[in-house]
Specification:
Helices cover 39% and strands 14% of the residues. By secondary structure, the chain is an alpha/beta fold. Bound molecules: pyridoxal-5'-phosphate.
């Protein structure tokens, strides 16, 4: 006889209290999920239309070797990205190794000695501290005579316009705006808010380059930061736009000049975009981009489910259970190292790959405390796949993201509850 779904969950180690509590929370989320599906539908259409307009063909899915001259797949994909983001040009390459590399490339190629970089939204993502030279590092922008200035957000999360205005002067060449909160508990910026900030900055200094770190933000809304004035939008293909299929890669999309500068730095002056074989990754870049709107929607639903579950269990969550979403990350403040560890072990136990291993906190390059990371991914380190990580330091928050399908994200969250329950870190409320 076939099992019903609750029995199915029991075979996956989810007891009926945890399952029933999860269902109760889910039953209240129908309207929100509908809204997410609507956005995904719009973005799906945007991607298909861009592929049609740029005449993506079967030949585009093949690759080149060696120098990679006349790589039609690579060149067409860059046009597809430019269409989706409504920019003049784009650089989308497997030679860009990760998000940090894409951001470093965008910065280093568009800044020159004597220029100043400004972050008007507070401290950037951890790994960028070494790129900029906030933490001393070989090859940083600072080593090349590029200075850095930062204006923090106000305590309520608003832009500090007064101090941003004071921080812009004749040397200010590039402004970096991080959309996602990263490892912080500040709110993520909506595209609309990014647009307001860019308008303010351009009003003071029209020729300043505005770059947006778009990591985790792609396809969450129906517009992207390049549609509200950003000169460069940068991200990783092992997050949203790779759709879980891209095995490597990053993108920089923006003005012709910014992208050209980045291309000359990525390959070599004189060569630029003309070289760079795509090997065999093009079909995964195209198919991943095609899937990205619905994959991002699945991850968003997972994040909203997590927020509602953990808020109901009494933990602070950012964003909260009802807030609008501008990236796929869910922060949950568990308050204890044991909580962070149990949560991550639950996520790991839900994986398809490496489900039997147990993650432990460890010192990681680029981070200033031990970090625990749960990721059983098809693409190593991919965080559009179901994953969670947390630094082992107060306030003991865990950052949850991804899930290529909603059922997988749901199983992950139920597994975290089960692990927390078994460690006696939570009690599942009685359902009536
Ligand atoms: C992930 C991320 C990065 C860095 O990307 P990696 O691929 O991990 O190098 C930079 N900024 C933000 C906001 C991110 O989320």
């Amino acid at each position: 006889m076939e099992m019903n779904i609750s029995e199915m969950y029991q075979t996956m180690g989810i007891d009926s209290d945890v399952y029933t509590f999860g269902e109760k929370i889910l039953s209240k989320l129908e309207e929100r999920f509908k809204e997410i599906d609507k956005n995904a539908e719009y973005n799906q259409w945007k991607v298909i239309r861009a592929m049609q307009e740029n005449r993506v063909s079967e030949a585009c899915l093949l690759g080149t070797t060696g120098y990679g001259y006349n790589d039609i797949g690579r060149d067409t994909l860059e046009k597809v990205y430019a269409s989706i983001f409504k920019t003049e040009d784009a650089l989308v390459r497997p030679q860009i190794t990760c998000g940090t590399h894409a951001l470093a490339l965008a910065l280093m190629s568009n800044l020159r000695p004597g220029d100043e970089l400004l972050s008007p939204v507070g401290k950037p993502y951890d790994t960028l501290e070494e790129v900029i030279g906030i933490r001393e590092s070989k090859g940083s922008l600072r080593e090349y005579g590029i200075t850095y200035r930062q204006v923090d957000l106000l305590p309520d999360g608003a832009f500090d316009y007064e101090n941003i205005k004071k921080a812009i002067h004749d040397k200010t060449k590039l402004v970096t705006i991080q959309r996602s909160k990263g490892y912080q508990t500040r709110p993520t910026l909506s595209v609309k808010r990014i647009g307001e900030l860019i308008a303010f900055i351009k009003d003071i200094k029209p020729d300043v380059i505005c770059m947006v770190d778009n990591c985790y933000g792609e396809f969450v809304e129906i517009i992207e930061p390049s549609e509200v004035g950003a000169d460069m939008v940068v991200g990783s293909l092992i997050k949203n736009p790779g759709g879980g299929l891209a095995p490597i890669g990053g993108y920089i999309t923006g003005t012709k000049e910014c992208v050209e500068n980045a291309a000359f730095r990525l390959t070599s002056p004189g060569l630029g975009k003309e070289v760079g074989a795509s090997l065999g990754v093009m079909s995964s870049f195209y198919e991943g981009l095609f899937l990205s709107p619905t994959v991002t929607a699945a991850a968003l639903k997972g994040a909203i489910f997590a927020a509602n579950v953990y808020e109901a269990l009494g933990f602070p969550v950012v964003p909260n259970s009802t807030e609008s979403r501008h990236d796929i990350i869910q922060a949950v403040t568990l308050g204890t190292p044991e909580g962070v560890i149990a949560f991550c072990k639950g996520i790991q136990a839900a994986a398809s790959v490496d489900s039997y291993v147990s993650p432990e906190p460890w010192a990681m390059p680029g981070y200033d405390s031990d970090v625990i990371m749960a990721a059983g991914a098809f693409v190593s380190g991919s965080s559009i796949e179901l994953s969670a990580d947390g630094p082992i330091k107060p306030p003991y928050a865990v950052y949850f993201q991804g899930g290529l399908t909603f059922p997988h994200a749901k199983l992950g969250i139920l597994k975290t509850m089960q692990a927390m329950k078994e460690q006696k870190l939570i009690e599942i409320p009685c359902i009536h």
